[in-house]
Amino acid sequence: MIAKVVRRAAGLSPLILLALVLAGCSSGGSAPRAEAKGVYSFWPLAPAEPRVQFVKAFQSSMDVTQERQSAFQDLVFGAESADAAAIEKPYGVEIRDGKIYVCDIRRPGLAVLDLRTRQMRLVGVQGVNRLAHPVDVAVADDGYIYIADNERNVIVVYNPQERYETAFGRQGLRPVSVAVHGDRLYVCDLEGQRVEIMNRRTGEKIGEFGSVGDGEGQFRVPLCVETDRQGFVYVSDMMRSRLQKFTPDGQFVAAFGQLGDVAGSFARPKQLAVDNDGIVYVVDAAFQNVQMFNDEFSLLMSFGSAGEYPGAMNLPVGISVSDEGVDLVKDLIHPGFDAYRLVVVTNQFGPFKVAMYALGMRKDGWSVAQLHANSLAEAGVGQNETLAPLQDDPGRVAPDTVEPPQGPAPSGAPEEDDGGASVG
To answer: What is the pLDDT of residues 356-369, one digit of tens each?
Structure first.
């Protein structure tokens, strides 16, 4: 919807356009029809129109089932058994039809959070074909699951029943990201600094594109590949702090982004997602937020930041977007907010390992002030001592790990894992 507003207002100046997208036309409204209970986090911050709400965080099976062990179960099984299905260090993520698929690189496996059945299932955690270092996951329209394992250097395939089917690989392939569109499987190959195109049913190589360099269609550290509904391919380059768009066959279309420490630039871009309106979402582990760009790559807004409030981010890396499943979390949505899309972000540590957000708009009868009244959200992109030098020195590389502004990570917290893409 935001992209449609942008297209209709294409003739306006960037400042007026941004005001239309973020501020809306009115902050007034009549009294709410229902009482808003609890606290919420909304972005953009007041007094702008709220467009994104933090919904919920998942860290273990208990966050899916909403059940807790009884005292008797603690006595029989031990209190620690309640955390047996905990997510320890999430990386790549996919949300589809009410299921959240999470790659866990600390406790190697794929966690499937099924919001419809209120179950959490672990895939690929045992047997000779168990996962070793799963960094990304893609789910096809027919339910087949594709996981990039960059320790085994293969793409592991599971059928819609989450049972092992096969694995694709070859010598010299180092997959760090996967995407599916139709019968095509796109694989980010870190070793070859390119994207390989496979037949997702047979593993046969169809083509490839990209090479090492700084020109159009070239990469330095291609860390993520994604497709949109038309089949266009997007690749994020962490070293060059930019994204490139290609045709389904790998012909260069456009590029945007640069190293910087202000909104619209990148410091350490990780994974990306594209929604059905063509909006591009980019996770930045240094900014610790998500920036949203329209289909012409103009910045729309950002959400998230380092902190301890609900929805804060802590070295975020993975992201996925879906128009399905909003009904499954409707009780968690602010009564004055009309949510129509879900966004899931993974954080490598902190209390919000798998964080869910909702994209939407204010309902009639509610004012902007009423929605922001209980919001705890904080801003994210801006000047800070760690990132400020990056804008003055374009050739400088962002640090491997940027600690949250509020202080160092807690004792024993894991360091950032960039999916095997070491650049420091």
So the answer is: 999 999 999 999 99
